[in-house]
Amino acid sequence: MRTLFSALAETLRGGQPVVLVTIIASSGSTPRGAGARMIVGEQGRLAGTVGGGAVEYRCITMAQELLNSAGPVETKFFLNQEDTAGLGMVCGGQVQVHFLPIPADDPEVMALCKDAAARFSEGTPFWLMTPLRNGEKLFLWPMRAGESAVSLLPSDGLPSLPGIFEENGRCWFCEQIQRPGTVYIMGGGHVSQALVPVLAPLDFPCVVLEDREEFADPRLFPLAREVRLVDFRCLDRELSLTDEDYVCIMTRGHQNDLLVQQQVLRMPACYIGLIGSAKKSAESFARLREMGFSQADLDRITTPIGLAIGGRTPAEIAISIAAQLIQHRAKRFPRG
């Protein structure tokens, strides 16, 4: 979504209208479900995807025809066996697709894209509200101070799964774009330097903590939200984790790794990953047991960190870690 917002802003600044295409509902066998998006301009698809193949081709064609329309349009596409054969699907399905034309140089949407970029950098959770009826606007929730309020937020908050949201006769497609939670990477070495550029586009805000000044350099991590020079012996004084946060431990040595583990185990992180071999993990766990940590505590640590894909280089290990974090997030926030 970060890329989609960026492409949307760039196209509008270039004086070209676009259509925001969104799957707002699906059933049966379809390549993508509710929340899949793309933007389409005069030249065709500019960013994002609604699944490729026949559905995407039809959506692009229809979007191009709607580029200069005034209001939103919805339609349903039914996938037959011919449409789904190349996707390995036995039966077809249907998708409900929403088309929102956005005129060139639209100041409100350009401001929205700028605000979205700021929220990505801040790491704050937010929702994109796409109007399904004429007379409503595209906006981000929570609204910033000074913006004209939209009175639609229910007392129990907005849904975490993408779907149609109706309130007082008004209707939006509601999707949480960025979820709460930050990835705290302990150590600024080669794997960390490879990991941040992989995680950032996946909407995992990253904070790097390092005790060596030369590696606590923001220039090594241009996509990180923050880089901190810390004393790992006093980490509990400098860091307050929530149960939405992730920790990846990859400091310069076993002793620092152990210092970090014994402190973060006392914090409610949702994921703690430790880089290293099985032998290193066994040694760490033995020391932690001596310190009084229980087996339940040790079970919170994922080690070796990352999915077992056979990677050995920093770039390959970064991919395996990113895949594991995606897997962990998907289990916590299933998209249906």
Describe it for me?
With 336 residues, the chain is α/β, with parallel strands linked by helices. It folds into two domains: 2-102, no CATH class; 183-332, NAD(P)-binding Rossmann-like Domain (Rossmann fold). 32% of the residues lie in helices and 25% in strands. The chain has helices spanning 2-13, 53-65, 81-84, 107-122, 190-199, 235-238, 254-264, 278-290, 295-298, 314-332; strands spanning 18-28, 37-41, 44-49, 73-78, 93-102, 126-131, 139-141, 163-167, 170-178, 183-186, 206-210, 226-229, 246-249, 271-274, 301-302. It has a six-stranded parallel sheet with strand order 12-11-10-13-14-15, with helices on both faces. It has a five-stranded antiparallel sheet with strand order 3-2-1-5-4, with helices on both faces. A hairpin with a 2-residue loop joins β2 and β3. The protein is elongated. Mean pLDDT is 87; it is low at 83-90.
| CATH level 3 topology of the largest domain | Rossmann fold
Give the strand line-up of the largest sheet.
Answer: 12-11-10-13-14-15
Q: Overall mean pLDDT score?
A: 87
Shape: elongated
Name the CATH superfamily classification of the largest domain: NAD(P)-binding Rossmann-like Domain
Question: Portion of residues in helices?
Answer: 25-40%
Output the CATH class name of the largest domain.
Alpha Beta
Radius of gyration, in angstroms, nearest whole number? 23 Å
Give helix and strand order, one letter per element, not per position.
Answer: HEEEHEHEHEEEEEHEEHEHEHHEH
What kind of oligomer do you see? single chain
Distance between the termini: 19 Å
Number of domains: 2
User: How many helical stretches?
Assistant: 10
Biggest sheet character: 6 strands, parallel
Number-wise, the strands total: 15
The chain-level structural class is: alpha/beta
Name the CATH architecture of the largest domain: 3-Layer(aba) Sandwich
Q: Which consecutive residue ranges, at least 5 long each, have pLDDT under 50?
A: 83-90
Strand content: 25-35%
